[in-house]
Amino acid sequence: MRKKIIAGNWKMYNDVNGTVNLISEIKKVMSDKNLNAGLIVCPPFTNLETASELLKDTSIKLGAQNMYFEESGAFTGEISPLMLKSVGCEFVILGHSERRTIFGEGDQVINKKIKTAIKHALKPIFCIGETLDEREKGVTFKVIETQLKNGLEGLGEGELANLIVAYEPVWAIGTGKVATPEQAQEVHKFIRELIAKMYSQNFASQLIIQYGGSVKPENAKELLGQADIDGALVGGACLKAESFIKIAEVC
Ligand code: 13P
């Protein structure tokens, strides 16, 4: 049985004070609940150290939202895996659609980042997903297959033990337009079957595949009730402790 994992991608929201407030609130709201799901929070880089301190006495894990694929060097404005490790990060989101579309990251760069994260024992939350145009053209599965194969190229099953895949249809991110549970399940099933072909049935059956895109307390139960949906990567609704924890409570 796969454990459900709910991750909050804070995106570019909250300064240090906001981080102290939100994490304190999350700790308060979850204190009288017995959650089955694992929780991860991914604040902006500048707040990771503060977050790490505040999370020390909790079961909540810390993740970053991006990372460069070199350990150090003349890469102005970039953050290395070693830096993330040094502030207590365990996870890193890679290949998010906002990185792909706004910052021009392609599959090859994402592949390098996944390899570097794994080399440094950071657990990748690897995002894939089709645009509305691609869905309407009927090429969703093809896009997913290409992103998955390119992103994981050169990596063996043994190296991917801590991989999380997040299926985030681009048209559902920040739009309020959530995929129906059937639409999401169909793609999650496809991903798991493809992973089984690329690696093994055993590996595929243990892989955590999160859904992301307008997940809220109101739609979480149905989405997370699907056979191949093992958690959520939450944007907007993770910025309020109440709604973040309500999503985790349905698991
Ligand atoms: P929203 O939940 O705001 O749609 O964002 C989803 C997302 O991009 C999480 O990474």
What does the secondary structure layout of this molecule look like, with pairings?
Layout (H helix, E strand, L loop, with lengths): L4 E5 L6 H15 L7 E5 L5 H8 L5 E4 L16 H6 L4 E4 L2 H6 L4 H13 L3 E6 L3 H5 L3 H12 L12 E4 L13 H18 L2 H6 L1 E5 L4 H8 L6 E4 L6 H9 L2
Parallel strand pairs: 1-2, 1-8, 2-3, 3-4, 4-5, 5-6, 6-7, 7-8
Helix pairs in contact: 1-2, 1-11, 7-8, 10-11
1,3-dihydroxyacetonephosphate binds next to strand 8.
Q: Can you describe this structure?
A:
This protein has 251 residues and is an alpha/beta fold. It has one domain (5-249): Alpha-Beta Barrel (TIM Barrel). It has eleven helices and eight strands. It has an eight-stranded parallel barrel, surrounded by six helices. β2, α2 (48-55) and β3 form a beta-alpha-beta unit. α1 (16-30) packs parallel to α2 (48-55), α1 (16-30) crosses α11 and α7 (140-151) packs across α8 (181-198). 1,3-dihydroxyacetonephosphate is lined by residues 9, 96, 168, 173-174, 212-215, 233-237. 1,3-dihydroxyacetonephosphate binds next to β8.
What number is the mean pLDDT? Answer: 97
pLDDT < 50 stretches: none
Strand order of the biggest β-sheet: 1-2-3-4-5-6-7-8
Which architecture would the CATH scheme give at its second level? Answer: Alpha-Beta Barrel
Q: DSSP strand (E) fraction?
A: 5-15%
Oligomer designation: single chain
CATH level-four homologous superfamily name:
Aldolase class I
